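Inverse folding, one chain.
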């Protein structure tokens, strides 16, 4: 539940900052914030708030199904967090790899490598099966096509 609250707050902060950025003066309402420098932070903030609400609803359903009124103890949460620190460090390493190589390799190639590594880290324990390998490959290609080709065309702005 705490994760959902933090994600929601970050989303609200992103939307708050996006509203302060310059936007298209010829439009009014929400459409004005979807055109201009504040468009990406606004959209990302909306997505984060949506994800936060989805996490809250998921937690609520899980608690109702298990009959719990409260969540796991603080000690149980700390133990789970400690076991996942290695995964978070691996994801941070993949992100650092991506940022450091940005500009040295063609953007679509680097983005594909990033997603292959990112999904590889997330599915590391199940990578032995061909089905999971195929899932990682398909997710990586779809995400790369979206980020490298669909977004620049739909937003009419070049990416690196």
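Residues assigned per position:
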């Amino acid at each position: 539940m705490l994760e959902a609250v933090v994600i929601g707050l970050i989303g609200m902060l992103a939307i708050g900052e996006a509203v302060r950025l310059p936007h298209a003066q010829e439009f009014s309402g929400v459409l004005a914030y979807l055109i201009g420098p504040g468009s990406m932070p606004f959209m990302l903030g909306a997505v984060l708030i949506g994800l936060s609400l989805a996490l809250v609803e998921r937690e609520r359903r899980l608690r109702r199904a298990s009959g719990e009124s409260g969540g796991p103890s603080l000690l149980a949460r700390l133990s789970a967090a400690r076991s996942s620190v290695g995964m978070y460090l691996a994801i941070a390493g993949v992100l650092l790899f991506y940022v450091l190589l940005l500009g040295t390799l063609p953007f679509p190639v680097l983005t594909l490598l990033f997603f292959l590594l990112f999904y590889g880290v997330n599915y590391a324990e199940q990578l032995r099966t061909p089905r999971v390998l195929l899932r990682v490959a398909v997710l990586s290609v779809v995400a790369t096509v979206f980020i490298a080709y669909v977004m620049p065309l739909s937003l009419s702005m070049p990416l690196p």
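The chain has two domains: 1-71, 84-160. Residues 122 and 146 are 20 Å apart (CA to CA).
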